[in-house]
From TrEMBL:
Keywords: Aminotransferase, Biotin biosynthesis, Cytoplasm, Pyridoxal phosphate, S-adenosyl-L-methionine, Transferase. Pyridoxal 5'-phosphate binds at G118, S119, D244, H308, T309. This is Adenosylmethionine-8-amino-7-oxononanoate aminotransferase. Substrate binds at W58, K273, G307, R396. Pfam families: Aminotran_3 (PF00202). One of its GO terms (biological process) is biotin biosynthetic process. Belongs to the class-III pyridoxal-phosphate-dependent aminotransferase family. BioA subfamily. Its cofactor is pyridoxal 5'-phosphate. Homodimer. Coiled coil: none annotated. It comes from Christiangramia lutea. It comes from the Bacteria. Its EC number is 2.6.1.62. It is an enzyme of class 2 (transferase).
Length: 429
């Protein structure tokens, strides 16, 4: 098609010609909405309509979109060093980032392994657990995971994810996984018995878990003391504890990491999403000295032979470094506390509403289930999405779960607008 003809089509129409979107059945999906601009908490579409980004664009842009502090740092870095091989070479942005991150990571985290996204971060976490035992000469090849966990879309990550409704074509190729339910408080005792039985009957290498909040399982919370018990059993059995903090990391649950709220610390931490503040893609897998030492050897084969071309890209490292600087600032910590407090008040207000079930909040995360007869609304999720978008709020309900993970810099006025549109939805459905 000639350029002149293409120009007459809308962006949404041109999108359809060659683009294949993630997590989308194109035959059943409406047109994609072109977004032209993002700034602070706002997304602007090609008609100039604004939407409050109440989920921080999948939990990434927590300091606001196009944050000047971060973009100017990256722009400066871009003039000096754009990309270099990270095998045999090193650079200051990666070194500085490691120094700053080790300060705020859960106790014991010492070594950082760079990668590209959340799935590769967990993939490497799994590899670290499996190879740790391999290197020690232990025959342990099974991973332990929570039912309904989500850890990404590459093969290892898919294998340990419990939400596999759409993964049917790949299941025959999965790594071996045993699953346990999340602790609810009531089931804690029984869960430990189940866990002990699984451990005695299988050679478990590692346990991968989303601490405290399971994002893709519709912002499901679980019992911290129950998780602590599970982790304690893992420690006693030298099962490598892999905390998938891809969603929960960098302040979302009110602390730097969700693991900070649990006594028993992870051996491995997986990070991405807010790591680079939504500016550039990057993942990170950190580990304790114990893990690193199991790979440190005169035997070359005991090394971790995994590497991505863009490992520790200096621009992404610079974005992450600026993001950490913002995160630890008093202002940002106050913002997180402010949103936590507003969320708690909103939960209190709605908790007895007849259509609101299981309303909960932790840090900036707030969620509840909309208790309406689904069949009355056909695809409730899509109708809710449209309802919120029409009113200028970008939310992505999961089934009948409505949740927010707003940018930390959201103003009181903006978050009140989000709350009020949610309340409108209670009246409308
Ligand atoms: C998003 C997510 C992933 C996968 O990250 P991608 O960057 O999308 O590959 C893994 N684990 C958790 C907990 C996530 O929320």
């Amino acid at each position: 098609m000639r350029d002149i003809e293409l120009k007459e089509l809308s962006l949404a129409e041109r999108d359809k010609k060659h683009l294949w979107h993630p997590l989308t059945q194109h035959k059943l999906s409406p047109e994609m909405l072109p977004i032209k601009k993002a700034s602070g908490c706002l997304l602007t579409d090609d008609n100039g309509k604004n939407y409050i980004d109440a989920i921080s664009s999948w939990y990434t842009a927590v300091y606001g979109h196009c944050n000047k502090f971060i973009t100017s740092r990256v722009a400066e870095q871009m003039q000096n060093l754009d990309q270099v091989v990270f095998s045999g070479f090193t650079h200051e942005p990666a070194i500085k980032l490691s120094e700053e991150l080790v300060r705020i990571l859960p106790e014991g985290q010492q070594k950082l392994f760079f990668n590209d996204n959340g799935s590769t971060a967990t993939e490497i976490g799994i590899k670290m657990a499996l190879q740790y035992h391999h290197n020690l000469g232990n025959d342990r090849k099974v991973m332990l995971a929570f039912e309904e966990g989500f850890h990404g879309d590459t093969f290892g990550a898919m294998s340990v994810s419990g939400l596999s409704v759409y993964n049917g074509a790949f299941e025959d190729h999965f790594i071996k996984v045993k699953r346990i339910p999340v602790p609810t408080g009531e089931n804690n005792q029984e869960l430990i018995e189940i866990l002990n039985r699984i451990i005695s009957e299988n050679s478990i290498a590692g346990f991968i878990y989303e601490p405290l909040v399971q994002g893709a399982a519709a912002m499901k919370f679980h019992d911290p003391s129950g998780l602590n018990e599970i982790l304690r059993v893992c420690t006693e059995n030298d099962i490598i504890k892999v905390a998938d903090e891809v969603m929960t990391g960098f302040g979302k649950t009110g602390t730097f990491f969700a693991s900070d709220q649990i006594e028993e610390k992870p051996d491995v931490v997986c990070m991405s999403k807010a790591l680079t503040a939504g500016l550039l893609p990057m993942g990170l897998t950190s580990c304790s000295k114990k893990i690193y030492d199991a790979f440190y050897s005169d035997d070359i084969a005991k090394g971790l032979f995994h590497g991505h071309t863009y490992t520790a890209n200096p621009l992404a490292c610079t974005a992450a470094l600026a993001a950490v600087e913002l995160l630890v600032s008093e202002e940002m910590q106050e913002n997180i506390q402010r949103i936590s407090h507003l969320n708690t008040e909103f939960c209190e207000k709605l908790k007895d509403h007849s259509k609101v079930k299981n309303i909960r909040s932790k840090g900036v995360i707030m969620a509840f289930e909309l208790d309406v007869k689904m069949e009355r609304y056909g695809n409730l999720r899509n109708q809710l999405f449209k309802f919120f978008m029409d009113k200028g709020v970008f939310l992505r309900p999961l089934g009948n779960t409505i949740y927010i993970v707003p940018p930390y810099i959201i103003s009181n006025e903006e978050i009140e607008r989000v709350y009020s549109v949610i309340e409108d939805s209670l009246a409308a459905f």
